[in-house]
């Protein structure tokens, strides 16, 4: 019976060592699983971001395709109009606008045809300008909107149908764009 008591303390000493090893193994397993989950989450987020960027690139590619391409061997024709000086709609007192603009058209033949319509074109532009407030024309966006309105209005004067979809699709008539040479509000 003398041999039995020494065996009991050895088992008691071995048991706490196993208990100590189990929590360490459990902690290591939990940490490894957490790292794997984080890597998977990062991979999913990366794929989603890549997919979103590719979708944005496709939209930008479509915008670039929709932009008009100029044939440099056949430059467009410009018709310079005489300066316009108009009173703007009253906002903060009397203000006037002096603007020099040019119409961009496809070719010289169209330019010759437009000369007969010039009084009507100038009349429409004059009416459009006098109806504007100084605050509407003080920003670059306001001036771009005015140029688009002039294109629409002058093309409709010439009997062209209104353009569908605005700036990206291009005008439906002979006048392609309006370019401002001078734009002064006083």
Q: Give the overall shape, derived from the CA principal axes.
A: elongated
* Top-tier CATH class of the largest domain: Alpha Beta
Question: Hey, roughly how much beta strand do the residues contain?
Answer: 15-25%
- Radius of gyration from CA coordinates: 38 Å
SSE-based structural type: alpha+beta
Going by CATH, the architecture of the largest domain would be 2-Layer Sandwich
Distance between the termini: 118 Å
Beta strands, count: 4
Order of helices and strands: HEEEHHHHE
Number of domains: 2
Number of helices: 5
Mind summarizing the main beta sheet?
4 strands, antiparallel
Mean pLDDT: 81
* Uncertain ranges: none
CATH fold naming of the largest domain: Tetrahydropterin Synthase, Chain A
Helix content: 55-70%
Keywords: Cell inner membrane, Cell membrane, Cell projection, Chemotaxis, Cilium, Flagellar rotation, Flagellum, Membrane, Transmembrane, Transmembrane helix
Pfam families: FliL
Organism: Aromatoleum bremense
Region (Disordered): 154-173
Q: Can you tell me about this structure?
A:
- This protein is of the alpha+beta class and 186 residues long.
- It has two domains: 1-67; 77-185, Tetrahydropterin Synthase, Chain A (2-Layer Sandwich), CATH 3.30.479.
- 56% of the residues lie in helices and 16% in strands.
- The protein contains five helices and four strands, in the order αβββααααβ.
- It has helices spanning 4-66, 108-114, 118-130, 134-137, 140-157; strands spanning 77-80, 84-87, 96-105, 175-185.
- Strands 1, 2, 3 and 4 form a four-stranded antiparallel sheet that branches.
- A hairpin with an 8-residue loop joins strand 2 and strand 3 (96-105).
- Helix 3 runs antiparallel to helix 5 (140-157).
- It is elongated, with a radius of gyration of 38 Å.
- The mean pLDDT is 81.
